[in-house]
């Protein structure tokens, strides 16, 4: 089967295919497509004339590589693959399984004979005690489940029927989520079972081995709370009160550890507030968004999903997929959905709402924060509206058309 090329990521990595001085690190939640991306890179290397014997692949979760358990095992295995070529290409998947891998990888890098690509599904990959060895010597490419335009494009790539209306196709995307394998499952129940399996795998492989969970019910309660309150400003006090009302006594420190475990496993994304006057993120206030909305659907029994948080979640992951930094926008006491920041491009201010056309009062609430910002950076209001408001030079866009065309905020 032809692999779908995730061009959004490939276009950023191609310039480094032959770079032996920099390690290419692809990170992302499990099953988002990292292995397929690496496979496409190998295909492109072969297509440009790299001999097959110069491409070496290790998947540390496959039985064939069960013998590689330590950094020393990894070092010895790589040494055996050297064939005297001027440059070989090394692909290592799920590298976070190997403790203290950093010195080995750096030693291989220093030979100037290997172009190294690695992947991982947990923040432990780049947060180990030895990571300073590799600082300045690697490039991270964060990968996400399919965005809406990728979802539609991948369907067309594999000749899967696509609705003639992007509006109707968006309904499928909201229900299915963006995990690539879901596109090949026809029944909603099969899709739900698959996503539940992804969550179980994350828990068993990425959370449980690293986190001491004294009471599984408490951990599950924290997870359910975050699932049901994604896109809301998070209060540890509110979460603690909810747990206490449910008969669970748990310290805030434990709650913080559990939330961080979900972030480290890339189930959740942390979105801090950014105070525009101070031009820096704030400590404390933050929202959490889901790596994929299918996590909400497969765990929730509520068919009436919260629309605006879902729209915000889509916009958040969409902007992040371009490599942008995304924060909750704050200016004194005024809040808006997002500040999007891109290297050497500055900021864009984004307000996400269902509609600006419900009432004049609602229109004022939506536009007031954006109009209060005293600079010349671009502003967007993202809605479901099909008729657009012209006000204060602010771009009013339809979320489906904007994302369906793959447009960028910059």
Blueprint (SSEs and pairs):
Layout: H1 7-13, E1 23-27, H2 34-47, E2 55-59, H3 71-81, E3 88-93, H4 102-110, E4 114-120, E5 138-142, H5 148-157, H6 166-176, H7 188-207, H8 216-228, H9 236-245, H10 252-264, E6 268-275, E7 280-290, H11 294-299, H12 307-320, E8 325-331, E9 334-342, E10 346-352, H13 360-372, E11 378-383, E12 395-398, H14 399-404
Summarize the structure.
With 410 residues, the chain is of the alpha/beta class. The protein is built from 14 helices and twelve strands. It is globular.
> In which order are the strands of the major sheet placed?
7-6-8-9-10-11-12
Query: By helix and strand content, what is the structural category?
Result: alpha/beta
Low-confidence stretches: none
Number of helices: 14
Helix content, binned percent: 25-40%
**How many beta-strand runs?**
12
* Element-by-element helix/strand order: HEHEHEHEEHHHHHHEEHHEEEHEEH
Based on CA atoms alone, the radius of gyration comes out at: 22 Å
Shape: globular
What percentage of amino acids are in beta strands? 15-25%
The quaternary state of the protein chains shown equals: single chain
The largest sheet is: 7 strands, mixed
Rounded mean pLDDT is 95
- Note the gap between the termini: 35 Å
Question: Could you characterize the architecture of this molecule?
Answer:
There is one protein chain. With 410 residues, the protein is an alpha/beta fold. Among the domains are: 7-142, P-loop containing nucleotide triphosphate hydrolases (Rossmann fold); 148-271 and 287-301, no CATH class. Helices cover 38% and strands 20% of the residues. The protein is built from 14 helices and twelve strands. Strands 7-6-8-9-10-11-12 form a seven-stranded mixed β-sheet. Strands 2-3-4-1-5 form a five-stranded parallel β-sheet, sandwiched between helices. Strand 8 and strand 9 form a beta hairpin. Helix 3 packs parallel to helix 4 and helix 8 (216-228) packs across helix 10 (252-264). 37% of the residues are buried.
């Amino acid at each position: 089967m032809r692999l779908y090329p995730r061009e959004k990521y490939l276009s950023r990595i191609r310039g480094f295919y032959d770079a032996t001085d920099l390690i290419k690190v692809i990170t992302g939640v499990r099953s988002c497509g990292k292995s397929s991306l690496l496979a496409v890179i190998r295909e492109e290397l072969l297509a440009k004339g790299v001999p097959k014997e110069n491409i070496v692949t290790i998947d540390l979760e496959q039985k064939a590589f069960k013998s590689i358990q330590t950094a020393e095992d990894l070092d010895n295995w790589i040494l055996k693959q050297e064939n005297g070529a001027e440059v070989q290409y090394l692909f290592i998947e799920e590298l976070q399984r190997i403790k203290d891998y950093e010195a080995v990888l750096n030693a291989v890098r220093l030979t100037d004979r290997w172009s190294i690509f690695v992947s991982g599904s947990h923040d432990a990959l780049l947060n180990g005690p030895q990571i300073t060895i590799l600082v300045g010597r690697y490039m991270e490419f964060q990968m996400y489940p399919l965005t809406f335009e990728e979802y539609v494009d991948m369907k067309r790539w594999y000749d899967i029927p696509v609705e003639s209306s992007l509006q109707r196709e968006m309904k499928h995307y909201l229900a299915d989520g963006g995990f690539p394998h879901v596109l090949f499952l026809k029944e909603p129940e099969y899709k739900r079972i698959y996503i539940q399996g992804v969550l179980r795998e994350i828990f068993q492989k990425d959370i449980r081995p690293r986190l001491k969970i004294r009471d599984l019910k408490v951990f599950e309660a924290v997870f359910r709370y975050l699932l049901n309150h994604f896109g809301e400003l998070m209060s540890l006090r509110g979460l603690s009160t909810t747990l206490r009302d449910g008969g669970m006594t748990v310290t805030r420190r434990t709650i913080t550890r559990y939330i961080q475990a979900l972030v480290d496993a890339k189930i959740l994304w942390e979105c801090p507030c950014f105070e525009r006057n101070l031009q820096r993120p704030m400590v404390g206030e933050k929202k959490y968004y889901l790596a994929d909305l299918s996590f909400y659907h497969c765990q929730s029994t509520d068919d009436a999903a919260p629309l605006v948080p879902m729209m915000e979640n889509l916009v958040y992951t969409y902007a992040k997929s371009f490599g942008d930094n995304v924060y909750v926008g704050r200016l004194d006491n005024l809040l808006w959905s997002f500040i999007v920041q891109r290297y050497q491009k500055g900021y864009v201010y984004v307000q996400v709402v269902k509609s600006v056309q419900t009432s004049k009062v609602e229109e004022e609430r939506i536009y007031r924060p954006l109009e209060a910002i005293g600079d010349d950076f671009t502003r967007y209001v993202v809605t479901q509206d099909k008729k657009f408001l012209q006000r204060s030079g602010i771009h009013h866009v339809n979320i489906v058309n904007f994302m369906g065309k793959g447009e960028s905020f910059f």
